[in-house]
Amino acid sequence: MSLPTFDPAGLEPRSATDELRERSPLARTPDGTWVVLGHAEALAVVEDAESFSSEVSRFLQVPNGLDGAEHAAMRAATDPFFGPEEMARLAPVLREVAGGLVEELLDGVGAAGTEIDAVAALGAVFAVRGQTAWLGWPAVLEPELLQWMSDNHEASRSGELERTREVAEHFDAIIRSVLAPRRAAEQDAPEDPTTALLRLRVPLPDPEVPGSTERALHEEEIVSILRNWTGGDLGSIALCTGVLLHALAHAPALADRVRDGSDEEATAIIDELLRIDDPFVSNRRVTTCPVSLAGHEIGAGERVLVHWTSANRDGRVFPDPEALDPAGNAERNLVYGAGPHVCPGRPLATLELLTLLKALLSAADVRPGETPGEREIAPVGGWAHVPVVLVPRG
Ligand code: HEM
């Protein structure tokens, strides 16, 4: 049986996949990449990291682009940065950041409210301020990081390798400007996750020290980790904010539940809204051996794209993909991935989104804006712009 062709150019990821997936859980792009659209198939791929390698880029990507024991060692060393203690330390810091931003947006606003773009004015600014507060980076970096986010976004949209490389190099320069003074300050460097990364020992042998079982991170590894944390955080938090605000502006009763409900209830609603409209569209793999998927034989060395947005709307698993069922669908929700590469930043992403929504909704009612907003198109998901009106609550 020949597979349908997946050509998402100019389409937003949901409409590019909804109808196609019901015909086949697997498709191929015109250049031969296998696109995994079904939920069961996406799980099968990401849980079999031996057959489906994450080493897809010629650039060092820690931990994203690593496999096997090296990947496991890097995850073991870096996952604690998102542990419960670290999140508890961060919670009041993020509350202050969110509260301050909401206050700025509502400053001098009367009963008629004010219209803002939830992606640019709320999500992107909060993502940058939350990120710099978490990592201990200077607040003066805010305009540069916001500009970088926008350049990075345009580069991903363009698909041009040269542009992507330039944007990545710019980001590396920002990171090195943060690392250099910390290295120079040695023991006097501020105690924050960035300094902790400089001092981190990973459970991997040091080739220079025979018999060793751990070593420090190399400069390129630190830069790569910070790039992946920041890349994971900034763009996705801004896009998630757009998706959430769009949904909540159109469902005031749901917004009430997020504002007044427990953190657990609000988090479950957030996760479920992101399942329905997942802006973190896809990740790549490459096969290491011949492998069978959904009845098709895939050779070794073939490119594979796991399409999370599609898998999260698979009618075989979510009979009505558009229906909101936070408790019922939680277990099969793939917004944060699965398998050994499952998102380590989930506790941080959850804390950020929850804190922002609670701060905003307790200060303002959110209504749809005058204009309908603009969807992103492949390879980016979610919304490019979400106009919403913020009406201060009495
Ligand atoms: C709402 C926001 C986020 C979403 C939807 C999201 C989603 C995902 C998904 C689906 C993966 C799996 C990738 C794969 O299988 O190849 C992943 C991996 C990853 N995420 Fe997130 N993420 C988010 C936020 C964050 C944040 C805040 C951070 C860190 C600050 C982060 C850091 C990472 C890293 C480092 C990986 C790679 C893990 C590995 O390869 O072992 N993410 N994320």
From TrEMBL:
Region of interest (Disordered), residue spans: 1-25
Q: Which GO terms describe its molecular function?
A: heme binding; iron ion binding; monooxygenase activity; oxidoreductase activity, acting on paired donors, with incorporation or reduction of molecular oxygen
**Annotated signal sequence range:** none
Q: Which InterPro entries match?
A: Cyt_P450, Cyt_P450_B, Cyt_P450_sf
Q: Which residues cross the membrane?
A: none
Q: Where is the composition biased (Basic and acidic residues)?
A: 15-25
- Lineage: superkingdom: Bacteria
The entry assigns this protein to a family as follows:
Belongs to the cytochrome P450 family.
Designated name of the protein: Cytochrome P450
Q: Which organism is it from?
A: Brachybacterium paraconglomeratum
